[in-house]
């Protein structure tokens, strides 16, 4: 076992939650083994490691499981507390970052699922909700971080940059596979942030291959019954 202990990531291709963990480990320079799960036939290791949610990602550190991607990022930042840091030092700023990461996850990311699961007028409403949530996100970020981008720490991606970027950089693939949900004019500020995140080498070099992602999303979408 090296000085980092044994680090294993259970994940699946195309999952932004899993990609977050991968990027955080790479940012910190932590060697890890990646194990691809099959969610149609979950491994005993996954079921034992995450008995409550039975979901990926799971990080195993010396055999001990940590579940939930945002909590895994915090664990990584606390355990490997060397630079580059994911979260800022100041407790108030940390809490603001956590607030907006949670908002993005619980509201914005879930709005894309609502879009995916609906059709017709319900889908139009889901699209409008998504645009409005991004507007709230834009306003909040501008208000809470008026002088410094919360998506980067100097040259490096930050906690929020990783959380938002790993998901939003795939909207183009989502739209090719599922349908038009974004409005780049109405959320121009948000998409200027996404473009910056996409241009960052750690992000661009680690995004899932576009065509493979589109194919996977299409396959998943046509398996999912629409309400
Ligand atoms: N809140 C969780 C969400 C993880 C999640 O939704 N994982 C999906 C794959 S992207 C999963 O494992 N789904 C399996 C299932 O629902 O049975 C996190 O942030 O880690």
Automatic annotation (TrEMBL):
Note the CDD domains from the entry: GST_C_Tau (cd03185), GST_N_Tau (cd03058)
Which ranges form a coiled coil? Answer: none
Source superkingdom: Eukaryota
Pfam families the record matches: GST_N
Q: Name one GO biological process term.
A: glutathione metabolic process
Query: Which of UniProt's keywords are assigned here?
Result: Cytoplasm, Detoxification, Transferase
Cellular localisation: Cytoplasm, Cytosol
One GO MF annotation is: glutathione transferase activity
Q: Where is the GST C-terminal domain?
A: 90-221
| Main location class | cytoplasm
The EC number(s) given in the record are 2.5.1.18
**Its catalytic activity?**
RX + glutathione = an S-substituted glutathione + a halide anion + H(+)
Looking at the keywords, is Signal present? no
Q: Per the database record, which ranges form the GST N-terminal domain? A: 5-84
Q: Name one GO cellular component term.
A: cytosol
Q: What does the record give as the function of this protein?
A: Is involved in the conjugation of reduced glutathione to a wide number of exogenous and endogenous hydrophobic electrophiles.
Q: Its family?
A: Belongs to the GST superfamily. Tau family.
Protein's UniProt name: Glutathione S-transferase
**Organism for this UniProt entry:** Corymbia citriodora subsp. variegata
